[in-house]
Amino acid sequence: MPRALWTAWVWAIIILSTEGASDQASSLSCDSTGVCDGHSRSLNSIPSGLTAGVKSLDLSNNEITYVGNRDLQRCVNLKTLRLGANEIHTVEEDSFFHLRNLEYLDLSYNRLSNLSSSWFRSLYVLKFLNLLGNLYKTLGETSLFSHLPNLRTLKVGNSNSFTEIHEKDFTGLTFLEELEISAQNLQIYVPKSLKSIQNISHLILHLKQPVLLVDILVDIVSSLDCLELRDTNLHTFHFSEASISEMSTSVKKLIFRNVQFTDESFVEVVKLFNYVSGILEVEFDDCTHDGIGDFRALSLDRIRHLGNVETLTIRKLHIPQFFLFHDLSSIYPLTGKVKRVTIENSKVFLVPCLLSQHLKSLEYLDLSENLMSEETLKNSACKDAWPFLQTLVLRQNRLKSLEKTGELLLTLENLNSLDISKNNFLSMPETCQWPGKMKQLNLSSTRIHSLTQCLPQTLEILDVSNNNLDSFSLILPQLKELYISRNKLKTLPDASFLPVLSVMRISRNIINTFSKEQLDSFQQLKTLEAGGNNFICSCDFLSFTQGQQALGRVLVDWPDDYRCDSPSHVRGQRVQDARLSLSECHRAAVVSAACCALFLLLLLTGVLCHRFHGLWYMKMMWAWLQAKRKPRKAPRRDICYDAFVSYSERDSYWVENLMVQELEQFNPPFKLCLHKRDFIPGKWIIDNIIDSIEKSHKTIFVLSENFVKSEWCKYELDFSHFRLFDENNDAAILILLEPIDKKAIPQRFCKLRKIMNTKTYLEWPVDETQQEGFWLNLRAAIRS
Fold this sequence. Notes:
By secondary structure, this protein is of the alpha/beta class. Among the domains are: about 30-155, Ribonuclease Inhibitor (Leucine-rich repeat, LRR (right-handed beta-alpha superhelix)), CATH 3.80.10.10; about 340-460, Leucine-rich repeat, LRR (right-handed beta-alpha superhelix) (Alpha-Beta Horseshoe), CATH 3.80.10.10; about 470-595, Leucine-rich repeat, LRR (right-handed beta-alpha superhelix) (Alpha-Beta Horseshoe), CATH 3.80.10.10; about 640-784, 3-Layer(aba) Sandwich (Rossmann fold). It has a 22-stranded mixed sheet, with no helix packed on it. Strands 32-31-33-34-35 form a five-stranded parallel sheet. A two-stranded parallel ribbon has the order 4-6. Strand 1 and strand 2 (about 35) form a beta hairpin.
């Protein structure tokens, strides 16, 4: 019994393990190209069931702790593996052995305390390797990367425990596009450790203190293109001239990111610029200057320039003691060779006139996201300031007057490009003055609502996007590029105003259509971006856009950004895919066809009505409806006649000379109602008939061949009173003047045919001896 329980327990464990593996495998989402996404799924192991079809596997941000030899053995075609931000503390020796096609491997931010070269021995084509943020102290006892000849990006180290770099660490690497070393607590750097790498395009160093910085520079200065220093406190930095003064250098760019300087260390950095002669570009990003800018007591006076630096970029510079800062006049002479200066988001409100005059080689100046106003710009753009300046960027400052801004820049005779976007100009004056060589002007996001002749006629590029413009009617004969997106334009500008325009971006307006004629009128237009508008997908517009195969070469955002706004049934569809019905595209033809069909229908109805007496039926129906409104029987006191006589005009002699004489002169006399005599003149004949029937005790029908065959259209209304016929009463008296074939009675008198089949009628005898009996029976019928 215990053995049976043990067996059941084992099977339960197996089943639960299988279900868990199945659940983990199902947590991956894979597409048809073999890209599988399993990041942030709370996985605690690599899912089982992975096959050779997987080419990219993302298991980052999970809780995986272990990578085994068999976890990835079937993923022989895997090219990208992301295992970052897990809890991996163990990777077995052959875990990646079968991944011979792997190009990208991320093991960053795990808990690996030891690194093994055996992990990478079969990864010959690996190009990217990230080992940042683990717990290791060194890069192992043997060279990790000697089996990775194609490695181009390498990231190693951590912010706490990584303290040593040895000579064998990077052996086998000859060329890297990017090398990132996070070593904030670096304590040991063995000389020549980085010298084995013959060429590094971009080196990123995370160093808390600059103690070993010079030693590293000595090894890389001849093989490095760009050095980026991050998160470093340079307060104690000292540059030794003897270290690299006699060596050839290849460093072209220096980047300081989140670095702290003092006045003294800044001077040491400037010395570095002089002795590393190849440096052409220097960038300070989010740095802090802990000083007051007093360089006069330092050795800065012995430095005449910034080496060969041509480009200087400063972003988010923090100066805690800014209000104690000196005038910086001591560094003015160093700027003579600088050609490009960018100072962004650093609270700059003034460039002193003397500094502007020293920037004699300056061609490009970017002062974006600062505090420049017209008052301070006047001092900055003083006489002889920036004599060769061609491009000035004053984006997102505190400029308010477009007219005054243009006047202040008249001193810049070589200025051809001006960016004053994201300033609050609101309005544009009618006239302005600008430097004579202005070719490019950016007025985007300045809240202007109209354009005037203030704009220079020499412009070749104009950007007025993201404003409140509802029209464009300026004549700019030299304009080649127009950027006017995110406004309120309802149509394309007139091509005659822009004769040489080649690029126009007019997306996100309220344009609802444009035509082939409009596009053709821009004879030199090569690029048009007009997506994101509220297009009315009319038949003409769809015919034009869908029928022009070459349209995609002009419309750069075609077809995805072109959507229908109306008609409602195609709203949201791409213009390219929208389809309208025949009735929408050929409305005139459809209306004409409908009118013709209606006319033919009416004509056919008329013919059928005439042929089958339809009009007669309608009149009978109307009379029947009229009669239905009245009581079925009139009160006794309303009876005025003994009988109403219905007869054919051709039988009037018999009715008027025989029947009337016989009945009305009888004693007591009968009172008959005849249409010739008793109908009220001017009253509708239908009403006369119905009223007479209702006011008569009986209704006498004098039937004959004349009654049946003669001019039925003239008398058809007389028979509307057939509604009063009822098989169960004797209100109707039928007199047959002559024999009538019942089949000869028209079908429309169905009621008459029915009564003749069910009621007894009086026949007029030809024999005079029998006529007295006829009149006797008739009088009796009337009295009944």
